[in-house]
Structures are given as structure tokens and as C-alpha cells.
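Example record

Each entry pairs one chain with its bound ligand, 2-acetamido-2-deoxy-beta-D-glucopyranose.
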Amino acid sequence: SCYGCPTKVSCKGVGLHKFPKELGQGVKYLELSNNFIQNLSGSHTLGFGQLEYLDMCFNQLEAMSATALAQLPQLRSLLLGSNHLDHNYVANGRAFHLLRNIEVLDLSANNLESHMAGWYISNLTKLRMLDLSGNKMTRLLAGIFWSTRRLRELDLSNNYIMEIEEGAFEALEELEVVNLALNSLHCISGFSLTQLRVLNLSHNALELFVSEEGVEPYLLQVLDLSHNRLLYFPELPKAHYLTHLNLSNNLIASLLPGSHHLGEFVLRYKEMASFNGTSPAAAGLTHVADLDLSNNRLQLFPFTFFHSLGSLRSLSLAMNCLQEVARESLAGSTEPSDRSPAPPEHAALSVRSLDLRSNAIRVLPRWFFDSLPQLETINLGSNSLQPCGGSRVPAPGGNCTPFYNMPHLKHLNLHKNNITRLRPYAFNQTLLLSLDLSGNKDLFMPKEALGGLEFSLQKLSLRDNQMDNSKAELPCLGTLKVLDLSGNNLSLLPTGLFCSPLESLDVRHNNLLTLEKPALTSWSRSLKDVAVAGNPFSCCSLAWLDTLRAAGVGVRDLDKALCAYWDGSRNFSAKITSSPRWLCPRPRSTSPLALLVVIIGIFSLSSGACCLLKKGQKSLGCAGPCSKKVGVFPPHPKRDEPAEVKPADSITKV
Ligand SMILES: *[C@@H]1O[C@H](CO)[C@@H](O)[C@H](O)[C@H]1NC(C)=O
Ligand SMILES: *[C@@H]1O[C@H](CO)[C@@H](O)[C@H](O)[C@H]1NC(C)=O
Ligand SMILES: *[C@@H]1O[C@H](CO)[C@@H](O)[C@H](O)[C@H]1NC(C)=O
Ligand SMILES: *[C@@H]1O[C@H](CO)[C@@H](O)[C@H](O)[C@H]1NC(C)=O
Ligand SMILES: *[C@@H]1O[C@H](CO)[C@@H](O)[C@H](O)[C@H]1NC(C)=O
Ligand SMILES: *[C@@H]1O[C@H](CO)[C@@H](O)[C@H](O)[C@H]1NC(C)=O
Ligand SMILES: *[C@@H]1O[C@H](CO)[C@@H](O)[C@H](O)[C@H]1NC(C)=O
Ligand SMILES: *[C@@H]1O[C@H](CO)[C@@H](O)[C@H](O)[C@H]1NC(C)=O
Ligand SMILES: *[C@@H]1O[C@H](CO)[C@@H](O)[C@H](O)[C@H]1NC(C)=O
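C-alpha cells for the complex follow.
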């Protein structure tokens, strides 16, 4: 049941209980993962002298003999994750010492304690990549990596490491990538692994991260400190190459120097004596492009702090407690500044993407945007901002935020800001491509509100605003492609829409009885998909559906859409997909008999039959349906005429 070519064989998940014997000589690459192999002894590996790669992850391995491994001198990669190598570890480890050429070793999820892991790797001098994740290690002993000096990548994530003995990493001069995520580290001090490029310390309990003073510059590029308990921005004065710094999900309340209060630490560290935090923490971080400070406790957007981050492109301060943006250097002060029109000199930040979602911002002053001249994307969802009107008349109260005149801004999200009214030309001269105004209950949007976006806006969301027809007016948006109107109370589509080349339309959960033909006709060339469920469509005017189908538009949720019909005494609701259209009153029908309707239905089953029936009357348009299709829509049954023949059981009910 194994397959592959002579040198590369896979027996993955085929139920093996033993190492497969019958494979030919010369196998170099062997995959045995997801089986039930328990032991590996000398007789098994005889004849596998060419083997370079062996994957035995997800087996029941607990014993590997020295003879077995000695017979694999070419082995470079050995993957043994998710086995039971905590059993017999002394004997197994002794066997491992013979794996002279091993470069890649996976010992993840084997229940290994620190000393077991240390024993396994204690003679693997050529090791480049080591995976010890998902074990039970609690500390890294000083000598653990003494013989594995060429280690480049080390995964220690998901253990219980609380302690790293001094010098544990000292021998590892080529180490570049270390993953210590999901451990129990409380403090990193004297961090001096200058050769590291990627360090992941996320999901620990770090309160303090201090680099060593006076060392040479660090090569570190990626530092993930997310999900810890940091109270302050880490001190990284010499991390000049750092591009990606993740501090999300910590307890950072201030980025200002001098705001440290040692009393806030849960534990005491001797490093605190020298730790006085007056150095500007961001000083050396000239290459940081991506800084994530989401889910912390910041109350101020500290402009000055970000000034030294000259390469910053993407900044997230989502889910903090921001109320204000701070205008000037606020050293020593945590008071929110009063609003002043004067922007600081040389204040421009290079940020292109800014995430300020889920804060408590009420207003952003003009200078804020002026200081972000390259801003392309801003997420301001879940705040309390009110956009100003675009005209020169100042808004009453003056506590609105100007979104006009920002030529570089392309994506604006104002989801859930409790915006009740948009003023005319709110986005004038801001060539937005996408605008999210969803979740603003009872939003009133007059026709002029989106004035100025006629030739730029491509994507608009007005979802869950409970707007009725009079509140949702749109100008002619000549480039709009994606529109979400779901969760409103519209019984008509906004008329301005008809000049948009819509491709995707969501009108779920509104009050629509039908979709008007003019609209559908105007979108016939562009529309690709619609979502319609949750409207009180009438079963007797489903011509819109035929129109959509004929135009090849996908109706995403047709199986969930219902329609209502009146049977003379009460309203019924039916699935549109099984809609009983033959019950509907037929305005021009000469016979009240439903049976006749059904018969006509049968004859109109195919266009061929239709032609035969009407052969003598070419002038009445028969040629149309049967000849080559012309025009935008292929022909389809006339509105309100039975289009489908129901199965016999439906007919007998009639
Ligand atoms: C595997 O090896 C262990 C220890 O050498 C031994 O006790 C056990 O019986 C062996 N199991 C099998 C299935 O060979
Ligand atoms: C360690 O590996 C070397 C070869 O790399 C070998 O000569 C030596 O015997 C091994 N030591 C032990 C204790 O197995
Ligand atoms: C760090 O590890 C965590 C947990 O495994 C993971 O979610 C995160 O993506 C890693 N960070 C980086 C930068 O790879
Ligand atoms: C930072 O870490 C969080 C949590 O691990 C993750 O969701 C987020 O995507 C990371 N941010 C960046 C910019 O990688
Ligand atoms: C604070 O730290 C700086 C450099 O880290 C040092 O020069 C200064 O003496 C320290 N101040 C105090 C009061 O410890
Ligand atoms: C839109 O902005 C332009 C340029 O600033 C201005 O001339 C025009 O009056 C504005 N339109 C409205 C309606 O405010
Ligand atoms: C929304 O705004 C109105 C006034 O416009 C205010 O009365 C109300 O409390 C606000 N709601 C929330 C959730 O902020
Ligand atoms: C929706 O609009 C109708 C009138 O068109 C009104 O009677 C109804 O109360 C509205 N529903 C909601 C939830 O606002
Ligand atoms: C039946 O539904 C139609 C439209 O859906 C409505 O106008 C009519 O009032 C309803 N009749 C009853 C009795 O509910």
C-alpha cells in the first residue's frame, strides 16, 4: 500500500505496525507518518543505507536501537514528532548519538522533559534545525546546546519554560530563528543574541524585556512579544534592523519616557535597579515598518513617540483606550492636550495603514491627517467620530472630524461610530476606493453626502444601518462595484445606483418585495453575484429572478430566500426555489382554471415546443426565442407566466 518511485516512497497512514521491510534498496526519502510503529530495531533498517529523509511523525515510537540508527549513515532529516520518545530515553538517546550527519530533527510533542531533550541532542554536531515544541521542558540548562553549535533554527514553543540558564545559547553563533512562544517566561534581561533574525516570545508572561547594554548592533528583524504582560515599550536601542515588532495584547499604558512606576510590576527583578526608563525607547528603531500595539491600555496617541520610527508603514493601535491624539512632546505629562490647530513642525509620519479600531476617539483634528500625508488606509471602526461636511461652513459645535481633502486616502472604515447623519460632501476631494459606514444605526445619508466620490468609490458598505428609503440616497457613483445594503429597511433600491457598474450586491434583510427591472437592466453587463435572503418577496412577481438568471448572475443564497403568496384567505410563505408560481393570478389569463395554466406550462417547457405551438404566427415574436440570441439578456418566459412545470404531486394539490 506504499507508493512512489524507487527513491522516494510514502507509506503515510496505511496502518503499518512495523517498519516496512519489502521496500527495495536505494530509498532516499521515506514517509511513514500516521502509522502505529512502536519500535525500530537493527533488523528493520538493514538495507536502508541510502536513506536521507525519514518521517515517522504520529506513530507510537518508544524504542529506537543503536544498530537501527547506525545503519542510516546518510540520514539528514529525521522527523519524529508526536511519538513516545520519553520512554526509554536513555537507551534511545544513546542510539541518537550515532546520528552523525543529522541536520534536521523534529522531536516535537514527545512528552520530553528538559534533561531528556538535552540527552537526545547531546552529540548532534551537524544539527541545523531542531523542533522541540509541545514538550514538557521547564528550563534550558546552561550546557544544553554545547554540541549543537551549528543550530540555525530552534523551536521551543509550547513548553513550560520558566528559566533560561545563563549561557544556554552562548555556543550558538549561527542561530537565527528562535521560537519561545507559549512558555512561562516572566522576564528577559540582558538579551544579547545579536545574531538572531527572528525571535518569537509571544504568549509568555513577560513583564520586562531589556536588551544588554553596550553590545554591538542586533541583526534582529522580527520580534513577536504579543500576549505578554509588558507594561512598557521594550528597550531596544540597538535593534537597527528590526522591521516587524508585535506588542499586541500587553498592558502598555504609556509610551512616554519617565512614566514608569516600578510598583506596577507583579514581580521584582534585580534588573530594576538599573532600569530607569528615561531613554527614548524608540530611538534606534529606524527600520520598523510594522508595529502592532493593539490590545493595550494606551490613552493617548503619542505622535512624538512615533517620529523616530522613520520607516513605519503599518501601525495598529486598535483596541486601546485612546480618546485623544497628543499634539506635542508630552514628556512627563499624561494629560490629554487641548485641541489646537497648530501642528508640530517636521511632524509627518510615514504611516500608510493605521488601525485605530475599537477605541473611544470622539474627534480627530485636521493636523492629525496633515501629519499623515501618506495615509492610504485607516480603520476607525467602533469609535465615536462624526464626519464634518465638506463645505467651508464650520459644523455646529466643531467636534466633527474632517475627512475631506485627503488625496492619498483610499480606504476608510467608519463602522459602528454611532453616526446619525452624514453631511454633504463629507469626503469631497478624498478619492476613496472603499468606504465602510456599516453599523451606524439610523444613519441619514442625503444624496450629496457622498458627493465627490462619483469617480473613485468602488466598494461601499451600508450594512446594518436600519435605513429606510428616505435615508439612503446615493449620487451617481460611476465606479461602484461592490455594495452591501444588507440589514436595512429598504423597500426600493436607491435610484442613484442605477448608474453604477455593480458587480456584487448584497440586499439581504431588507423590505424588498421585488427588485426593480430598470436597476437589473442597468447592471446586466456587470453584475456577477447578489445575496437576497430575508426580504418579503412576492411569489407572484419573481420576474427579477428570471432576469438575473438569464443574465448569468449568481444568487448566492437563493436556497435561503423566501417569498409570500396569497391563496385567497391567507398569506403563505414558500421557498423561492420551490415557489408555486402557478398559483398566482394571471392578469391576462382568459381561463381561471389552474389546470389550464399547468398545461400551458408543460408546453412552454422548451423553446422548441413553444415554436411548434405558435408556428403559424411568426409575426408574434416566435422567431425571437428560437433564433440566435440577440441583446443583453437571453429570452426567458414572460413575466408572471408559468416558467416551470411542477412535479405531478404539486399539480394534484391544485
Ligand atoms: C519494543 O521495544 C520494547 C523495549 O525494547 C519492548 O519491551 C517491546 O516489547 C517492543 N515492542 C514491540 C512491538 O516489538
Ligand atoms: C558522537 O559522535 C561522534 C561522531 O560524530 C562519534 O565518533 C562518537 O562516538 C559519538 N559519541 C557517543 C557518546 O556516542
Ligand atoms: C509566534 O508564535 C505564535 C504562537 O505560535 C504565532 O501565532 C505567531 O504567528 C508567531 N509570530 C511570528 C512573527 O511568527
Ligand atoms: C501580532 O500578534 C497578534 C497576536 O498574536 C496577531 O493577531 C497579529 O496579526 C500580529 N500582528 C502583526 C502585525 O503581525
Ligand atoms: C538612567 O539610565 C541612564 C542610562 O541608561 C544612566 O546614564 C543614568 O545614570 C540612569 N539614571 C538613574 C537615576 O539611575
Ligand atoms: C469640494 O472641494 C473643492 C476643492 O477644495 C471645492 O472647490 C468645492 O467647493 C468643494 N465642494 C463642496 C460642495 O464643498
Ligand atoms: C449615539 O449618539 C446619540 C446622539 O447622537 C447619543 O444620544 C447616544 O448615546 C449615542 N450612543 C452611543 C452608543 O454612543
Ligand atoms: C421599516 O419601514 C416600514 C415602513 O416602510 C415601517 O413600518 C417599519 O416600522 C420599519 N421597520 C423598522 C425596523 O424600522
Ligand atoms: C399578505 O402579504 C401581502 C404582501 O406580502 C400584504 O400586503 C398583505 O397585507 C398580507 N395579508 C395578510 C392577511 O397578512
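The two ends are 59 Å apart (CA to CA).
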